[in-house]
Amino acid sequence: MRLSSILSSLAAAFALLACASGASAACTASTTATGTVTYSPNAAVAATPSFAGGFGCSGGAALTLFGSNYLKATISNANSYKLTKSGAPDLVYTLSANASGSVQLSGTTAYYINGATLDVLGLTGSIPASVPIYIKPTTLGAVKSGVYTGAFRVTWEWWFCPSVSVGNACIGLPDTGTKATDVTLSVTINGGTPATVTTTTTLVYDDQNSTTNPKSIPGSKQRTTATVSNPDTSALASNTMELKIPTPTGSSVSLDGDGGGGAFAIFTEGSPASGLAFSYVASNNSGDDVEFSSDGGSTWTFQPTAATQAQVTHVRLKPRGAMAAGSNFKLSVAYTVK
After folding, report:
1. What is the pLDDT of residue 234?
2. What DSSP assignment string belongs to 123-163?
3. Which of 79, 166, 201, 234 is placed for a possible disulfide with 43 were both Cys, Cβ 3.0 to 4.6 Å?
4. Rounded distance, CA 328 to CA 186, Å?
5. Please, is 269 exposed, middle or buried when counting C-beta atoms within 10 Å of its C-beta (0-12, 13-18, 19+)?
6. Low-confidence residues of the chain, pLDDT below 50?
7. Helix (H) or strand (E) holding 175
8. Distances from the Cα of 177 to the Cαs of 8, 70, 112, 157, 180, in angstroms?
């Protein structure tokens, strides 16, 4: 081999080494971290939020799925994964490396990255400045409002090759280390944000003007519409939604509809969709989702007819299913102005 060729090869190798050194991941773990999470009671057993686990790399360091790269975490916990609050039962929780909980951290060592076969956070390309840990309470039943606290230690171990590698060899110095982070947890159960309801009443029909600019005169038809929103970050408990609508003063339910083609009870899905189901068949159908009361809502067995509909004091609407987080829908009922 000519001397010039040897020198060219050496220059290329030194160039790769310089490039690799410049791409050093500069990763580390802090000695302490604080995980602060807020839940509603529903979200406490349904959602899986995250907090910074203490490990990260500066500048979004470059990363490829090189065969020897790894990032793993080992959790040690002296309190059996329990959060405590004075005067309340303990809140048991699990920890995971991803939102789905498929890579459990509790009581074991788990890999965030393991060579070219595992990358639970989708880190190919760069390592984030802060690697998350996901927490999910597992306590079932009612959870009291308040602040629950706890602590655990996570030991981070990592080995990263800079972005340049040749075959199975790392060109340059790998970024490697082992460091423990003591995490203090503070979980707030905030009492929850109940579904919100707003109601409006709109004239639909009268005998003189039909549906064009109808007037509120005896015999005219109107709809009372309830718009329901779930502002929570978690779905509401299944089959717990019900709306009780009092009959507006000076009107009676209109079992034959609103005069403009609308049925007595109408469900309109929102956006985002609630995912609820609703049906109205007839006032004497005990299998649909509408009930009537003639005694101010004390009982719900009244089955009105055209001759007795003026006796209805309240209508109860009971959509089925678990109302999705952040969703909304509308339910409306037809009335006749007396």
Report:
1. 75
2. -TEE--SS-EEEEEE---S---SEEEEEEEEEEEEEEE--S
3. 234
4. 31
5. middle
6. 1-24
7. strand 175-189
8. 35, 11, 15, 6, 10
Amino acid at 206: D
Cβ-proximal residues to 248 (8 Å cutoff; 6+ apart), any chain:
201, 222, 224, 335
pLDDT at 123: 60
**Cis preceding linkage at 272, omega within 30:** yes
**CA triple 14-16-21, angle to 5 deg:** 95
Stretch (H or E) spanning 334? strand 328-337
Instruction: State both tokens at 320.
Output: 């089925």
Range of the domain at 46: 24-189
- Residue 18 counted as domain residue: no
For the chain, first and last CA: distance in Å? 107
Instruction: List, in order, residues 6 or more apart from 87 with CB less than 8 Å away.
Output: 144
Give the end of a domain, one of 120, 155, 189: 189
Q: What local confidence, expressed as pLDDT, does residue 333 receive?
A: 98
Please name the residue that has the structure tokens 């005069």. Answer: 259
Rounded distance, CA 280 to CA 114, Å?
A: 55
Instruction: Give Cβ neighbours of residue 245 (< 8 Å, ≥ 6 apart).
Output: 199, 224, 226, 314, 315, 316, 317, 333
Tens-digit pLDDT profile for residues 258-271: 999 999 999 999 99
User: Does residue 301 sit within a domain?
Assistant: yes
CA distance 232 to 193: 6
Q: Are 184 and 200 part of one and the same domain? A: no
- Contacts with 94 (C-beta within 8 Å, 6 or more apart), sequence order: 81, 101, 104, 105, 106, 135, 136, 138
Q: How far is CA 136 from CA 22, 50, 112, 139, 192, in A?
A: 39, 9, 18, 9, 17
Chain centroid, CA 62 distance in Å:
31
pLDDT value, residue 164: 57
> Which pLDDT value is given to residue 2?
47
- Specify which residues 201 forms β-bridges with: 224
